[in-house]
Write a structure and sequence with these properties.
Order of helices and strands: HEEHHHHHHHH
Number of strands: 2
Distance between the termini: 23 Å
Helix content: 55-70%
């Protein structure tokens, strides 16, 4: 069985690597928005590289959330966050490589970047001013990623399967809620699901492994050779505990 303390240590190592990668990007500046002040990057700084770095920050935070929930046996809630982590990983793979003509960004990549940096509300009157978002659909992102594989059809099918499985924990699908049924008298577990905890802990390294691969890919694309030994060492250590997803050699 995988040890949760070991997973916490591995995620901390990933967080340290991502934090070091942050020196490649200008920090946000404090700007006025409405009646307050917020941290924002300038227009010229809003690149696909910054997009990917911020997604790496998000996935690290999400992984810490997953492990914190597993510490308390909240398996279903941890799986819901695993879907969030998967989205960040896919976004990194999608935006790390320019996919347009002549080595530039594709129209879908430009749309994804613009939507990512878009503000949600008008600061003067946030009620009822939520802006329309031109979002690139998840299936299109998955298709773009799997087209890079030797077998795009199989890769796309696997991505959709994983997406749908964990989406059920996000949306509260019936078959997933039934996992909380605890006995023949109709009682349900509402303070964690210890009966499923061991399986969740054993599967957790796979979420972490996917994140490590994405960050390693980003580091390689960012020409941060100084961070490659650390991320490769972490990837090898975590790969030895994964038993579901393919391991990178």
């Amino acid at each position: 069985m995988v040890n949760l303390n070991d997973l916490h240590a591995a995620v901390n190592r990933l967080c340290e690597i991502v934090d070091q990668l942050g020196s490649s990007f200008s920090p946000p500046t404090i700007v006025r928005r409405g009646d307050g002040f917020v941290n924002r990057h300038g227009g010229a700084e809003r690149t696909n590289e910054l997009f990917c770095y911020l997604k790496a920050v998000k996935v690290c935070s999400t992984l810490n959330g997953i492990l914190t929930l597993l510490d308390k046996a909240y398996v279903q809630e941890a799986y819901a966050l695993a879907r969030v982590a998967q989205d960040q990983v896919e976004d990194i793979h999608f935006l790390s490589i320019p996919r347009g003509e002549s080595g530039g960004l594709s129209p879908r990549q430009i749309t994804a970047i613009n939507e990512f940096f878009q503000e949600e509300f008008e600061p003067a009157d946030p009620v009822g001013t939520s802006r329309e978002r031109d979002r690139v659909g998840r299936p299109k992102i998955q298709a773009a990623i799997t087209n890079d594989m030797d077998d795009p059809s199989t890769g796309n099918a696997i991505s959709r399967m994983i997406y749908r499985i964990f989406s059920g924990y996000v949306h509260g699908a019936y078959v997933h809620i039934m996992e909380l049924h605890s006995d023949s008298d109709g009682h349900y577990q509402m303070h964690g699901a210890p009966a499923h905890l061991a399986d969740a802990i054993d599967y957790a390294p796979n979420f972490l492994y996917q994140a490590i691969l994405a960050v390693e890919f980003l580091i390689d694309r960012s020409s941060r050779d100084d961070l490659l030994p650390s991320i490769k060492s972490l990837r090898i250590d975590v790969a030895s505990t994964c038993d579901v997803l393919p391991k990178k050699t």
